Amino acid sequence: MEREEKDLMEFKSPQCPYTITVRRNPPRRAKKTPATNAPDVTTSSSTHFDTKDVPRFPIEEILQCQLPLSKTSTSENSENLRVFLRIRPLDIKKNSKKNVDGANIARSRLKGISPKQDMKKKTKKKEICLSVNDTRSVTLSPPQIMQDSRRVKTEVYDGFSHVFGSDSLQKEVYDRVMDPLVSDFIAGKSGMLAAMGPTGSGKTHTVFGCPRELGMVPRALQKIFNCTSNTCTSELTRSYYVSIFEIYSERGKGERIFDLSSDGVDLCLQQSTIKGLQEVLVSNAVEAEAVIARGMLKRATAMTNSNSQSSRSQCIINIRVAPNMFDGKVELVPNNAVLTIVDLAGAEREKKTGNQGTRLLESNFINNTSMVFGLCLRSLLEHQKNPKKQFQKHFQNSLLTRYLRDYLEGKKRMTLILTVKPGEDDYLDTSVLLRQAAPYMKIKFSTVEEPSNLAHQKRHLDKLPRVEQPKRRKLRNLDASEVFY
Ligand SMILES: Nc1ncnc2c1ncn2[C@@H]1O[C@H](COP(=O)(O)OP(=O)(O)OP(=O)(O)O)[C@@H](O)[C@H]1O
C-alpha cells in the first residue's frame, strides 16, 4: 500500500481547489475487497446504496483547471542540442574530370576499353545509400551485398533539426544553422558550431566555403559587421577580435596547439584558456576574413585517397566581442561573448583511405580526438538521462575537448552539423556517424549565460556532480581502423 502511494504524484495548484492524483504506472486490476459492511458501489443494483450520500466528484472543474507545469518539465532555461545533417553531392564536378586523366586512362587501356566507356561504367555503378525522407529524416540503406551477407537492415534516422540534401546551397545552411548563433552572439551570448563527419564529406566546405559559395564563417562575419555598422549596435561601444588556431599531432608525438594568425607559434592550454593566443582586433568583415584566410593557408592539410586537400588538424576560430570604454563607461548590454566555429578533422578508416606512415599517425590522432569528442557528448547525455550516473570526465583526454569543456558539459549553447557522403561506398562511414550522433539530439543545453562569458576564467565546479576522477584512458594506442566520429 505504501509503495502504491509513493507511485502517485500529487500536484497542488493554487488555482485548483482539488488535489489531482496522477498515476505513473498503469493501473493494476484491483483485488476484490473483502466483504465488509460498507456498501458496494460497483454492484449498486444488488444493494440499497443511495448515490445521493456520496459527495459529487467534480471532474468537470478539475479538467478545466490550469495545472502549473512542474519545474522539470519547463524548458525555460534549457533547450535541445540542434543537430543538422548535410549530404554532400555524390559527384563533385571538378573531380569527375580529373578521374578521366592520368592513371585512369592507363587503367582503362589495360582493360582494353576506352576511358570514356570505363567512366560510364563507373558512374552507372554508383548508387546512393542515403535518401532524404523529409526535412527532418533520412533513410540509410546498406548496399545489396551487405544486405545479403550480413543481414544489415535499412534504418531511418529521424528528428534532425533539418536535413540538407545534396543540392542545398550554403545560404540555406547559413540561414538555418548559423544565423541563430550569430544573432545570439550579437545579443551577447556565446555559442559554438562544430562540423563533424567522415573525411571528404564537406566539413571544411560548409565552414569556410569557396569564393563562389561562401561558407558559415565569412557569412557570419558579414552579418556581424553589417549589423554593427547599421542599426543593431554602436561601433563606438564594441570591439571585435578574431583568433584562429589548430590542434595537431606531428607524427603522433602528442598534441600541440599552433596559433595560425601569427607565425605558427606553439601554445599551451591552461584550464580552457590558451596562453599567448593572439587575438587580432578587426574593424570590418574584410579584415576579419583576411586574418582567417591567412591562417587557413598555414593549416595542416595533405592529399589522401579520400580527399585531395584533407584537413590533418582540428581548426578553431573565435570571434570575440568586447565592450569599449566610452566616456569612461562600459556598455551595459551583456558582452564579451565568443562565437566559436570548429572544423574537426574527418575520421578515417584505415582500410578505406589506405593511409600509411605520417598520414596513418595523423589518422590515429584525428580518430582519437573524434572519439573523445563523441564520448563527452554521450556521457553528457547519459548523465542528463540519469543524474545518479557519474559524469565521466572524458574531456580530459584531448586538448580539443579540454578547450571546449563548457560546451561539452552543456553549459553553453552548441550546434552540430553532421556532413556525410551519400554513395554506396560511404555506407559504413555514414552508418557509424548517424548511429553515434543521432542520440545527441536529446542533449539539453543551458540557455542562461554565465555572468562572465569567458567562463574559462571562472569555473563553477559546484554545478556539476562531484565524481571521482576516472582513470586516464590510454588513447594513444588506438588503431586507426577503429573509427568514432
Ligand atoms: N556541398 C558541397 N557542394 C559542393 N562541393 C562540396 C560540397 N561538400 C564538399 N564539397 C567538395 O568536396 C571536397 C571535400 O570536401 P571537404 O574538404 O570540405 O571535406 P572535409 O569533410 O573537410 O574533409 P577532411 O575531413 O578530410 O578535411 C572538396 O573539394 C569540396 O569542395
What would your notes on this structure say?
This protein has a domain at 168-420: Kinesin (3-Layer(aba) Sandwich). Helix content is 31%, strand content 21%. It is built from 15 helices and 22 strands. Strands 4, 8, 9, 10, 11, 12, 13, 14, 17, 20 and 21 form an 11-stranded mixed beta sheet that branches. The protein has a 3-stranded antiparallel beta sheet with strand order 5-6-7, with helices on one face. The protein starts with a helix and ends in a 39-residue tail after the last strand. It binds adenosine-5'-triphosphate.
Quickly describe the structure.
The chain is α+β, with helices and mostly antiparallel strands and 485 residues long. It has a domain at 168-420: Kinesin, CATH 3.40.850.10. Helices cover 31% and strands 21% of the residues.
State the main characteristics:
485 residues; alpha+beta; Kinesin; eleven-stranded mixed sheet; 22 strands; 31% helix; disordered C terminus; binds adenosine-5'-triphosphate
Shape: globular
Number of helices, where a helix is a run of at least 4 consecutive DSSP H or I residues:
15
CATH architecture of the domain at 168-420: 3-Layer(aba) Sandwich
The first-to-last residue Cα distance is: 50 Å
- The class by helix and strand makeup works out as alpha+beta
Helix content: 25-40%
Oligomeric state as shown: single chain
CATH fold type of the domain at 168-420: Kinesin
Q: According to CATH, what is the class of the domain at 168-420? A: Alpha Beta
Question: Poorly predicted ranges (pLDDT <50, ≥5 residues)?
Answer: 1-28, 33-51, 65-75, 95-111, 452-484
Bound molecules: adenosine-5'-triphosphate
- In percent, how much strand structure appears in the residues? 15-25%
Annotated CATH homologous superfamily of the domain at 168-420: Kinesin motor domain
Biased composition (Basic and acidic residues): 1-10
Protein name: Kinesin
Domain Kinesin motor: 80-443
Region (Disordered): 1-52
